[in-house]
Write a structure and sequence with these properties.
Shape: globular
Helix content: 10-25%
Distance between the termini: 44 Å
Strand content: 25-35%
Number of helices: 7
Structural class: alpha+beta
Number of domains: 2
Radius of gyration: 20 Å
Order of helices and strands: EEEEEEEEEHHHHHHH
């Protein structure tokens, strides 16, 4: 039996006793985490989720926390005497797959959230309050629209993988402040904003809309650490 699970904005094909390295998870070694299942195969039948397989989950035990290899980003602007070099090590968690659960069954041991507690405590209620305020002002938040200013405090767009300080500032400059705005982007909206601020292709490549929806649901696609891992190329 094997399954396709999703965590940290990525998909993994796993079987029992596999060890996988994923974006950092909350919890200590020995804690059990449960992952959503996109597809489940038991040798004879297959179950494909829409998007998730109802009642199914995959349990795993946290083995260790660590950091990935250093990645160097170097940017040079010709004839501008401008050079920038930055290094980053991504925080990672090693998980051993222990159980395949169906019918709504829960892991047998204590569980830890697959979303970092820091994110949940920092963002809890903030984006919901902003969206509620927008609706109260008569806006249809299911459709993208630019704002003259944020409703209350702007959401921290840098939680979205692919958005660093530079792009977040540019998005604010064109009236994008909240996760619900990003989640509501239509293809034509993305094209218009990319034309204005110059990050062509990044919104689709990094799945900004999906990440924004995950953040609004309290399930961050990319854990945030004390150091941003984003690279602004705009």
């Amino acid at each position: 039996m094997f399954a396709v699970i999703k965590t940290g904005g990525k998909q993994y094909k796993v079987a029992a006793e596999d060890e996988i390295t994923v974006m950092t998870l909350a919890g200590e070694p020995g804690d059990v985490v449960a992952f959503d299942v996109l597809a489940l195969f038991d040798g004879e039948t297959s179950h494909i989720g829409a998007p998730l397989v109802a009642g199914a989950s995959v349990a795993g035990e946290i083995v260790s926390h660590g950091r990935g290899p250093k990645v160097i980003a170097f940017k040079k602007r010709r004839r501008k005497n401008s050079r920038r070099k930055r290094g980053h090590k991504q925080d990672l968690t090693v998980v051993r797959i222990t159980e395949f659960l169906t019918g709504g069954a829960k892991p047998a041991h204590k569980s830890a959230s697959t979303a970092p507690a820091a994110l949940l405590s920092q963002t809890e209620g903030t984006h919901h309050a902003a969206e509620a305020a927008a609706k109260a002002a008569g806006l249809d938040t299911s459709k993208f629209q630019k704002l003259d200013k944020a409703f209350g405090a702007p959401d921290d767009l840098e939680w979205i993988h692919g958005i660093g300080p530079g792009i977040a500032k540019k998005l604010h400059g064109v009236g994008v402040f909240h996760f619900w705005q990003v989640a509501a982007l239509a293809p034509e909206d993305i094209a218009a904003i990319e034309h204005e601020v110059g990050f062509a292709g990044r919104a689709d490549r990094d799945h900004w809309k999906d990440q924004a929806r995950d953040l609004m649901a309290g399930n961050p696609p990319v854990p945030k650490t004390g150091h941003h891992h984003h690279e602004d190329h705009a």
